[in-house]
Amino acid sequence: MQKCPGATLFALVIATGFATWVFSLIISHAVRLIIDEEGEASWILRFIFTILGYATVFLPCYVLIHLSRRHNLHTLGGCQWRLLRLILTGTTLETADETDSKISGTTRASNLESKTLYQKAISLTYCCVGLQISYLLWGILQEKIMTREYTDGDKIEQFTDSQFLVFVNRILAFMFSGIYLLLTHQNVHRTPLYKYSFCSVSNTLSSWCQYEALKFVSFPTQVLAKSAKVIPVMLMGKLVSRAQYKNYEYATAVLISVGMTAFLLGSGGDKKGNNVTTVSGALLLCGYLIFDSFTANWQSALFKEHKPSSIQMMCGVNLMSCLFTSASLVQQGGFFYSLSFASRHPVFIMDCLLTAISSALGQLFIFATISKFGPVVFTIIMTVRQGLSILLSCLLYKHHLSGMGILGVFVVFLAIFLRIYYAQQHKKRKLDAADVSASKV
Hints:
Elements: H1 6-34, H2 42-71, H3 79-89, H4 98-114, H5 117-147, E1 150-152, E2 155-157, H6 162-183, H7 193-213, H8 219-227, H9 230-240, H10 247-266, H11 279-306, H12 310-332, H13 334-344, H14 346-373, H15 375-397, H16 403-440
Antiparallel strand pairs: 1-2
Helix pairs in contact: 1-2, 2-7, 2-12, 5-14, 5-15, 6-7, 6-12, 6-14, 7-11, 7-12, 8-10, 8-15, 9-11, 10-15, 10-16, 12-14, 13-14, 14-15
């Protein structure tokens, strides 16, 4: 058999999806017998259900991609095969214009090199301010939704479905980026859609862990955990893209984490009303750090390999995220629960929309920052944001800021200054070495 007919291919994909769905139902019922749905470890149940929901999309797509490549179906003519080319090659064109790709990459590289230090500083400031504003608002709203109770007459409820919040955030971000792509001119897209699925899964799982963790740990504790994210990002960079870091980068990463820890511990203020840190909360925060570190480095690798624009990246990742989260919500009945909750509490609808808008705007700045400055610089900006969120709280609500907190702020900004200084020195030495080599020739 030389070719795999389209009807057979789609039958196999549907059969794989159905078999995965049946298997997930069996596993779900088996796990319910072991883990108490009302207990503290119930988040494990929800995590397993989420993974199984993603599998009902991931496995059929794997079969589709594997068989299509094996039989070269994406090279055939016809509308359905053009869609398959988009999944496998990132473009609906039968052949990619490699020359155009090389010219575009060369032009982009030359433009990047020709930027002055002033232009880079303006661009970095723009990304930094955008990230601070959008995610400060997002942090306030997510804490409200996951930790505060909504009142409907005599009935008091607390929202519990983290997956629905992730879905709302991703679908609005997909709409924002999709509309922007339709209204503006972009370079030819050459990133295979299936490659977005890996960072999409890690991105949705990191957000899920973040929301779930608020059920077990206080918001300051969660912020404290995020402040040390620069170290796992660098470690994940070595695993994903074989990135090489200098000694000063490791040293400043440790300094930033130490400084942020001192600042956050020194600005704890009133601890009343915060949840007690538990093993479950600690595990969820570790999951968040791991998934988020993988996401940033995988996206950075895609930027280097396929050179998509930040908006194309945002649209592709959120498209896949919508597919994964919607499949999981349908299986778990999350749509019915969340919409029913929203009908009883109209304020919840406004909170969700504001959260989604701030998250979507934040993603625009995330992709722009990673594509221009890399995942480590992005993590430094977001780490500083953690301190600013606590500092803003101290100013607005008169929380106590101890000497340790002030020392922490000093250490963080000292580390950032040292990182910029040594990076410039390293770049200067490389340029001097290149000039010396050129003069010898």
